[in-house]
Amino acid sequence: MDTDKRPLRHYGPLASVLYHVCVFINAYDIQIIPVCMRAFEVSLYLSPSSLSIMVTAELICAMGVSPFWGLLADKYGCRHVESTAMLLNGLVCTLLGLASSYPYIVFLRILHGLGLGCTGPVIQKVITDSRPREAHGSFFGMYYAVNCLGRLASIFVTILLAMKNISGHYGWRLCYIVMGSVWLIMGVLIYFYMKPEDDNVEIGVAPDECSSWGVRILQCIKLMFKKRTYRILLLVIYATESFMSILIYTILYLQYSGLPNVLVGVAVAVLRFGGMTGGLLGGFAIDACHKMNKTYGRIMSGAVVISVRLLLVTLLLSWPIEGGELQWYYYIGFFMLGASLFTKESVDRPIISAVVPRESQATALSLTRVFGGMPGCAIFPSLFGYLAEKRFGYIKTSELIEDMALETRVTNADALRRSMMCLMIASSLFILFLYFGLFFIYPKDVEASNCSNRNHEV
């Protein structure tokens, strides 16, 4: 039961549409980099290790600055913070479309991550401020579904343009320049129109609750780490972000497996469509399980989903793709794998919201991403590059796949497949182990949080 009796905020239809569009655009932008992996490899002559550095720099920065955005969202409100991040993204995306120097691109990726890190804490704040706790799973599931829809749209558009010659330039450059313009327009719209109907009411943290941002962060860290559930969830987020950081290499693997770009786009679109379906239906299913068993419902359903994910990864990556085409069962597997990826939104986030005070939701999520997500995104992509190149024999090349020697293409596809399988199975097993640990800890922390809220009210 939610013991926080403060009135929920209400976002009107236009504001609700805008924050969903914000999620869509953020996901669209994030998906561009994995779709363009092969285009970067050819046009910039980058190896998997170089690509990993570029991806890791962006991901680490996105997570590292989350506490900054989280504190701003908790203290000043969501629309001001999100519009600032969008304007920054607009400028950086435009510059990325013009850049050719690898060090300069890595620097821009860091700035890009700075802007991308804002949306997660802001949406956590919006949902927990405006929706009852019992419905968090379904609304976070909806958030994940919109996220997948944005990635799906990005796949269809970007994969057709990335390698095309447009006025003497690769199409991926045009993708980033247009993306920058969209960010700038949305930044203005978010500032003026994405506000709750009671926007004149003071929100966030009262001035006397903390004397500085540093004190606020330290107070929040101290509060979070007192709860064993939170400490376990840090490891869950670590493993989940590790899994997702490796999943982005799926496109490169399918391209090296000999699939034409259209079929690669279809396969990844099926994966994302599965994610969209899982986010919509899975969120409601998780909430239904929670209503049937408020103590263990979310954890049990999450463990079942992770078990299915583990089985799917094992089946999809144990054997190479032959003949340059995917059989029907691959599409079913990709759909089901995508549908299993919603646990971070519909299981982990609601668990965090249950053990964290509502006024600290954005800060708590951002700290989770820093202490849990950052290590996963820093370690696993680099480990992936090491395994692919040093252990499984990946051959660095800038040749077009259609012009590449068969032996080179097969060797690279096999190196990518084996590296993905090892790391994805390891992270899934770790998450499953951690969920079982939550069975013994989560109920006590929820009760302690509820008691604390009741005492605070008194």
TrEMBL record:
Keyword Transmembrane helix assigned: yes
Listed under GO cellular component are:
membrane
- Membrane topology annotation: Multi-pass membrane protein
Q: What keywords does the record list, in alphabetical order?
A: Membrane, Transmembrane, Transmembrane helix, Transport
Q: Which residues form the Major facilitator superfamily (MFS) profile domain?
A: 15-445
Q: Where in the cell is it found?
A: Membrane
Q: Which PROSITE patterns match?
A: MFS
- Cross-referenced InterPro entries, in alphabetical order? MFS, MFS_dom, MFS_spinster-like, MFS_trans_sf
Span of the secretion signal?
A: none
Q: Where, by residue number, does the polypeptide cross the bilayer?
A: 12-33, 53-73, 85-104, 170-193, 232-256, 262-286, 298-321, 421-442
Pfam families, per the entry: MFS_1
Gene3D superfamilies in the cross-refs: MFS general substrate transporter like domains (1.20.1250.20)
Q: Which family does it belong to?
A: Belongs to the major facilitator superfamily. Spinster (TC 2.A.1.49) family.
Protein's name according to its UniProt entry: Multiplied multi-transmembrane transporter-like protein
Q: Which organism is it from?
A: Babesia gibsoni
